[in-house]
Every structure is written in structure tokens, then in C-alpha cells.
Specification:
The protein is an all-beta fold and 359 residues long. Helix content is 0%, strand content 57%. The protein has two domains: 1-167, Porin (Beta Barrel); 185-358, Porin, CATH 2.40.160. It has strands at 2-5, 13-22, 43-52, 58-66, 92-103, 106-117, 127-128, 130-133, 138-142, 145-153, 157-166, 170-184, 187-200, 212-224, 227-236, 262-274, 279-291, 299-312, 322-333, 342-353. InterPro entries: Porin_dom_sf (IPR023614). It comes from Escherichia coli.
């Protein structure tokens, strides 16, 4: 993956771009429930956008650009606009993105998106926004999606609200509340709460499956000089096809276990321990309880453990380079499932990111 972001010519106009490529090693279908790993077809795509800065408080992007806050494409988690893919490639949007700082504490965001790349598109690359056909696995009818979000913040808080409208697909609303409480000069307590509601519309509605869903998720983090301790939880009312509505947005995280199944609860406790200012270890067990489908005939009971290592180079010619390695072991009990009564998972993820500036 390679990204480029220019400065602004005459302090008004600039460009950004990138080139991403995935080489698939392949996976045996009978050993993986990760359908997007099946096969060995590799693919790549390029990004390119013009960025216009009418004023110091506003920005407009036109073209194909990143919208993944974990990867660094956006400054913070903007409801519905921001993605957070843990797959090989970050979330990408094609269309127009606008930002306006109404006041020093209030941001307004808007986006119109014609094409997109989400985690569900790992087998195909960038595709049209539109109505998903479960029979063909394609988006047969093109429907653009519109987003609007607002965020208020100060030194210790951020409260954000966003909505999206997409004809024949869905209407969605999401809120994110964040608050940090200083306990003394070296310790803080941070609370985060996310709420989400989606309703399918028009051609995407189904007579045999739920056409709406809601999710609530929260996280509490205690930060100390040596690292942090966190606890998170989430509950999803109805599962949705990820190709239509993405409900994998709660705070509990696992490389292996589903957290977005029918009536699913997910709970996680974890610790980040800083061995040195540059080297951090993560350990986070997780528990899930839910159902395989809306019929609620197959119950899921999952347990897993996530371990991670993060190292950031702080000096020398590679200063700023970040190394991340995570390994995840999970197990699910699914009595009566077509996939098997006991499922065992083992996932590994590694990423290396290097940000630098040319002058």
C-alpha cells in the first residue's frame, strides 16, 4: 500500500492518491468460514482525488479517497462516514466529501458516494453503491448514498451524530459519545458509547428476514503511565447481511469471532502494557453469546483471546515507522450448525506503516 498527500498550491488546491495491491495466498473452503479468503485471485486498485480548501475552516475532496479512520484517512470516527476495516485494505469511497468547521468546537461533514470498497468487497475490489443481489453476489442496481454528520468537541469530550440515506437500500443513524475524566496528572478515565439504527428500504426489504436492526456498544478505559485497562460490551438486535448494512461496528474486537450475529452479546476485557515508550503488548479475552440466524435455532457460544505487539520507531532514518502484529485464538460452540458443532479459529494479522514528509 502506498499513499501520497500533497500540500496546497496557493493554499487552495492539492491532490492525494494511492495504490493498493492484495496478493492472496488462498484458503481451503472446508477449513475456513471466512468466505472472502476462498480462492487465490489477487487484485489491486488506485486512488486519486483533488482537495480544495476554500478557507482554513473548510475542505472539499472530489474523486476516490480513503474514509478509514483507523488507517488515518480521517481525523476521528465520523458516524457512518468513517470505516474501520481490519482486513488487508482500508475503506475507500468515490464521490465527494465536504468538511466545514462551523465554530472551533463544531464540525459539519457531508459525503455523496457513488462507489465504495468495504471489508465485504475483499473478493472484488471497488464496486458501485447499490442494491445487493444475494443470488448473484453483485450490486445490480446502482444507487448512490448520501451522508450528513455533525460533531461537537472540547478538550475532554466529543459528541457526534450522523445519518445516511440510500434509496432502495437503507436509512441509517448513528451516534458516538466520548468523554475523558482526568483523575490526576497521570491518570484518566475515558468512556465511549455508540448507538446505531438501520432500516432497509425499497428493493432491499425482505419478507422472510428482519428489515431493521439496532445496536448499542460501549467501552470504558483507564489510562495510566504504564498503559491502559479497558472493558467493552455490545448488543446487536438483528443480524444483517454485511453486504447491505454493516453492523460490525461495536467496541469489542476479535480477528476471529463474529460479534454481529442475531441477538448477539459480546464482552471483552483487556490490557495494554507499555514495556517502553515505543513497545506495547496487548492481551484481551472476549466472550460472545448469540444465534446463527434470525430463526434463533442455532445458539452461538464463543470464547477467544487476542494478543498483540506494537512497536514504533522513535529515532533514526525510519523514525515514525509502526509495526503491529496480532494473533487471535477463538472457539465457538454451535450445536446443530451446518458448519459444525465446534468451530476453532486461528487468525494472524501483521501491518507495517511508515509516514514521512518530503520537503
Amino acid at each position: 500500500m502506498l499513499d501520497f498527500n500533497s500540500g496546497y498550491y496557493s493554499n487552495i488546491i492539492g491532490v492525494e492518491g494511492g495504490a493498493y495491491y492484495v496478493y492472496k495466498l488462498g484458503a481451503r473452503a472446508d477449513m475456513s468460514t471466512r468466505w472472502y479468503l476462498d480462492g487465490d485471485k489477487s487484485f489491486g486498485f488506485a486512488l486519486g482525488a483533488v482537495k480544495i480548501k476554500p478557507s482554513e475552516n473548510s475542505l472539499l475532496k472530489l474523486g476516490r479517497f480513503g474514509t478509514d479512520y483507523s488507517y488515518g484517512s480521517l481525523p476521528y470516527r465520523i458516524p457512518l462516514i468513517a470505516g474501520s476495516s481490519q482486513r488487508t485494505l482500508p475503506t475507500v469511497s468515490e464521490g465527494a466529501l465536504g468538511y466545514w468547521a462551523l465554530t472551533p468546537n463544531i464540525d459539519l461533514w457531508g459525503m455523496w458516494r457513488s462507489r465504495v470498497f468495504l471489508w465485504t468487497d475483499s473478493t472484488t475490489g471497488i464496486r458501485d453503491e447499490g442494491v445487493y443481489n444475494s443470488q448473484t453476489g453483485k450490486y445490480d442496481k446502482h444507487r448512490a448514498c448520501s451522508f450528513l454528520a455533525a460533531s461537537w468537541h472540547d478538550d475532554t469530550s466529543r459528541y457526534s451524530l450522523g445519518a445516511s440515506v440510500q434509496k432502495d437500500v437503507s436509512n441509517q443513524i448513528q451516534s458516538i459519545l466520548e468523554k475523558s475524566i482526568p483523575l490526576d496528572p497521570n491518570y484518566t478515565l475515558k468512556g465511549e458509547l455508540l448507538g446505531f439504527y438501520a432500516q432497509l428500504e425499497g428493493l432491499s426489504r425482505n419478507t422472510s428476514q428482519p428489515n431493521e436492526t439496532a445496536l448499542v456498544s460501549g467501552q470504558l478505559t483507564w489510562n495510566a503511565p504504564w498503559g491502559s485497562v479497558f472493558g467493552s460490551g455490545g448488543y446487536l438486535h438483528h443480524a444483517m447481511n454485511g453486504a447491505v448494512v454493516d453492523t460490525d461496528i461495536g467496541y469489542p474486537f476479535s480477528l476471529s469471532l463474529d460479534r454481529n450475529r442475531e441477538g448477539m452479546q459480546s464482552w471483552q476485557l483487556g490490557v495494554n502494557y507499555r514495556l517502553t515508550p515505543q513497545f506495547t503488548l496487548t492481551f484481551a479475552p472476549i466472550v460472545t453469546r448469540g444465534y446463527e440466524s434470525s430463526k434463533r435455532d442455532v445458539r452461538i457460544e464463543g470464547t477467544g483471546i487476542l494478543g498483540g505487539v506494537n512497536y514504533r520507531v522513535s529515532e533514526g532514518p525510519l523514525q515514525g515507522m509502526n509495526f503491529f502484529l496480532a494473533a487471535d485464538k477463538g472457539r465457538e460452540k454451535r450445536d446443530g450448525s451446518a458448519l459444525g458443532d465446534r468451530l476453532n479459529y486461528w487468525d494472524v494479522k501483521m501491518s507495517i506503516q511508515y509516514d514521512f514528509m518530503l520537503k
